[in-house]
Design brief:
The chain contains 3 helices and 10 strands, in the order ββββββββαβααβ. The chain is mainly beta and 165 residues long.
């Protein structure tokens, strides 16, 4: 099965995921069994399960619970058809951020467009009580793929802000 026949729509690359990780896509494999793995940034499998789709083109959804103590804030979600064959099938891999590891009380996230003169500290202060005691670090960690230096954010940059809703 080629990657064109198998699609992962959620999560998208670098999305922040909660617990459980919510997945959605279309396509499947032989007998329509889909293999799902969640790995941490060290390549350690933290969740491994299967879900079913009706046929090769049907949409599917799944929820994958995470273990209580993740060791990294970044990871990868891998999905692919489970053929039961010795040869590994093509898999779709999506890098993700574990929101529950980044900030206590994580429930979701929203996008913020950086304005002239803003800092991560100021954005965190405006983001509400979730950031009391944790400061700007969770926002920096949630955007590690696009912010190399926490002192250098730029107007127009779109940041993911972890939230508790």
């Amino acid at each position: 099965m080629s990657r064109q026949q198998f699609r992962l729509d959620q999560p998208r690359p670098n999305d922040m995921v909660g617990d459980p990780v919510l997945l959605a896509g279309s396509g499947g494999g032989f007998e329509a069994t889909i293999s799902i793995r969640v790995l941490d940034a060290n390549g350690v499998v933290v969740a491994d399960t299967f879900t079913m789709a009706r046929n090769l083109t049907s949409p599917w959804q799944a929820q994958v619970p995470l273990p209580g103590a993740l060791t990294t804030s970044r990871g990868v979600v891998e999905v692919g058809p489970s053929t039961g064959a010795d040869e590994a099938p093509a898999r779709v891999s999506v890098p993700v951020f574990f929101g529950t590891r980044i900030v206590a009380g994580f429930g979701s996230w929203f996008l913020h467009v950086v304005q002239q003169g803003e800092t991560l500290s100021g954005i965190a202060a405006d983001a509400g009580p979730l950031y009391i005691g944790s400061g700007w670090q969770p926002i920096y960690e949630a955007n590690a793929d696009i912010v190399a230096d926490p002192n250098l954010i730029h107007p127009g940059q779109v940041l993911r802000i972890p939230a508790d809703f």
